[in-house]
């Protein structure tokens, strides 16, 4: 998949037959699925990109190299948007995300170790 950036917070992903516009401000998380990457938006919409999570992590690191990173890698499978993190529940192995405005609440199952590390990161702030 070819990709290019048009502005600071918008990425376009192009294939021969499709173009997907990803507004990073509205992305809740990216999820790995082999050579694909699922994008879950905070409103519940979902898109699938023909790019790996490692490639997406590189794109995001390049985009935010001069700024405070908007996204954080959690475990092997997820890159999440920091602004939507609502609850870290280590015992239930759940990360709960919301935008605090809409009724949409997203729950992700994540390993205890990854959640402990994320919780520790926020505890040291």
Question: Which descriptors would you attach to this protein?
Answer:
3-stranded antiparallel sheet, 125 residues, globular, alpha+beta
Structure description:
It is a single chain. By secondary structure, the chain is α+β, with helices and mostly antiparallel strands. About 20% of the residues lie in helices and about 45% in strands. It contains two helices and eleven strands, in the order ββββββαβββββα. The strands form three sheets. Strands 6-5-4-8-7 form a five-stranded antiparallel sheet, with helices on both faces. Strands 1-2-3 form a three-stranded antiparallel sheet, with no helix packed on it. A three-stranded antiparallel sheet has the order 9-10-11, covered by helices on one side. The N and C termini lie far apart (about 40 Å). The model has no long low-confidence stretch (mean pLDDT about 90).
* Class derived from helix and strand content: alpha+beta
Helix content: 10-25%
- Indicate the low-confidence ranges by residue numbers: none
Q: Helix and strand string, N-terminal first? A: EEEEEEHEEEEEH
Number of strands: 11
Q: How far apart are the first and last residues' alpha carbons, in Å?
A: 38 Å
Radius of gyration: 14 Å
Strand line-up across the major sheet: 6-5-4-8-7
Q: Label the overall shape.
A: globular
